[in-house]
Amino acid sequence: MGQSDLEKAKSDVSLERRKALLCLLTDEDPEIYLPVREKIISLGPDVCGWLENYVLDENPLMRRRSLNIISHFKCLRADTEFHAFCLNHGEDFDLEEACWLLARTVDPDINTEAYRAVLDDYAHDLMQKIDFGSEPEGIMAAINRHLFQTQRYQGNEDNYYSADNSYLNRVIDQRTGNPISLCIIYQLVGRRLGLPVTGIGLPGHFLCRFQTPRQDYYIDAFNKGRLLTKTDCMKYLKQAGYEFHEAFLKPASSRRILLRMCSNLHQIYQRDNQAADAGRLHGYIIALSK
Predict the structure, then answer these.
(1) Which of 6, 116, 253, 278 has its CA 20 to 30 Å from the CA of residue 23?
(2) CB of 85 within 8 A of CB of 101?
């Protein structure tokens, strides 16, 4: 048997093995299906090439399970990209890019440009509504009306500890989030408008700060943009059992904000006994803490 014949035989065996695995992939018995899924995954990301042929298969179980494995490898790739981003950037980086990279670790097929365009549209609409020569209260009131009344963003009080509250694409889709994600929306819109909006990481809460030469305004995006003074922040800290430190009201760097987001997610996944996701987030926390 010549070399070409040997290669052909090897290819034929590989093809037969592939057919056998795919046949078993649609077995309804988990004791058969799950080991087969793990076996296919163990073959590495190249399996996506031949699984792509089955994402439109007439068998819905084949479609779903093929997509599931393909998504698994896409998430692994997104995980690697986000982890590298965490390791290779300093304190101040593009927070928006970081948020989309984090979102891709759970939703690898999201169209980030479409979500950026949503935020662009918010800013475009506000450009027509804001009198930039007016007092800061008027500017913030216009932003609040647009985000919290027109667009209906609100704090997710009913499901505060949902992981969805920390992934920006899901926050935009569902129009609800936690304090930090809603503040990021506010901050990213403010940045598009050229406004001095930064994130403030209080213990137990997260705010935005709108800075002017005369006064600093603190914005509680979780509570529909409620405006707070420094005194209000001090009262909150006292009621929550914290001593006040001026450092609490200093803008948080992009790295600190991202670390806080990942820490929140890590706690949520631990609470929900999602060990794999908790481990993934632990890796990000270590990378961001270096």
Answers:
(1) 6
(2) yes
